[in-house]
Write the structure tokens for this entry.
Amino acid sequence: MLHLDLDAFFAAVEQRDKPSLRGKPVVVGGVGGRGVVSTASYEARVYGVRSAMSTREARARCPHAAFLSGRFHAYRDTSQRVMALLRDASPLVEPLSLDEAFVDLEQADLPDLTVPTVTAFAERLRAGVVEVTGGLTASVGVGTSKFVAKIASDLDKPDGLVVVAPGAELELLRPMDVRVIPGVGPATAERLRRVGIHTVADLETVSEDEMVRLLGKASGHWLFQLARAQDDRPVVPEREAKSVSVEGTYDTDLTDRRLMEGLLTRQASDVAGRLRKHGLSGRTVTIKVRLHDFTTLSRSTTLVSPTDSAATIARLARALLVDLDTSGGVRLLGVGVSGLADWVQEDLFGETGQEDEDEVLPAVEVPHHSRRAWAPGMDVVHAEHGRGWVWGSGRGVVTVRFETAESPAGPVRSFRDDDPELSPWQPPEPAGAEEEGVL
DNA sequence: TCTGGGGTCCTAGGACCC
DNA sequence: TCTGGGGTCCTAGGACCC
């Protein structure tokens, strides 16, 4: 297995494209008041600038660095060249991000997998990266598993190569801090530290039961394996997306609910656009709200069938916000869709492809249907309170959320599902296409 | 005015069904 | 009136990765 990692990728692309930045500290990341560092060039790292550090702190540490917000099309373009190079070398390539990938060497066209052979192969790949990227360097690790290859690629950065010979894995790992293990972050490391586990060697002395008690089922079993360098995960070239989301942190905390609703509406529209672009739709809509004190809340709701409609996602997102107390101020808002399907729901509301975000659904009274299957999020109804939409149903009760002029996600009322006051809104056409109870 | 944005995976509790 | 399990789906939160 081979793991390749492009060195200080975003910053390196900037230095490649702007010669004046070469040899100088470059920081790519959020440049706003609440930005964080995405990548620091090695020149900036000398001053202690690190990924995930606030840009404010990075500026304090290295005021003369160039602070850039990033050009993602350039990064994507460069990444694609590297991935194409890797796929030339082996059909089994698994990109982990724009700057990282695993390559299955068993599928590469190599005479054998001895250390000298894979070393020469890896050096050719590294030279290839410099060539196709116009001068970027990569660090590469090779080992008998993903785990070992990934750790190896980290050992001689930047522009390095480490090949771990079969059988040498544990000797290499044992003295290392548990934090080197992918999946062991600050919280897990702290839990382990409290019971006196600092190194992989320490970890190896813990029984599997003990590990599960300490870290839970999945992590416990997994870490027990990794402590023994046991990892047979295959290279998975294509993964299906499981969610699509958009979020934003604002320079000053939000307090205006109408503004929050407007921002969620915009984000919903962005999410819907990305869903459509990839031919996806999803059933679960989630909002994320980070309060002024960094408390992070999420609220979600699941539709009967998947949607890619900006109006539907926006409506649900705004309604999910209603129950949250945001009076202390909100620093982040986000909208996501999960439960993805690779098909799109028949256009229930007769909406056209280019729906209007602030579209007002036509009010059409239709005869009352008793014992109808009310579909949360999908059924729009009329009652004396105005137009509303079904928020939940079951046990003969339908909950309706009404849209009012003051609030797009207004008051909630419950009805018996045969309440004559409820009349479902239905698309004006097509005639004869009525599907009673089926949504 | 510490603390981004886009993701994945796991856990735990409750509803619901058989 | 008291008392089963197992499985699945949903929601909320949290850890983690790049």
User: Anything to note?
Assistant: The CA atoms of residues 293 and 328 of chain A lie 8 Å apart.
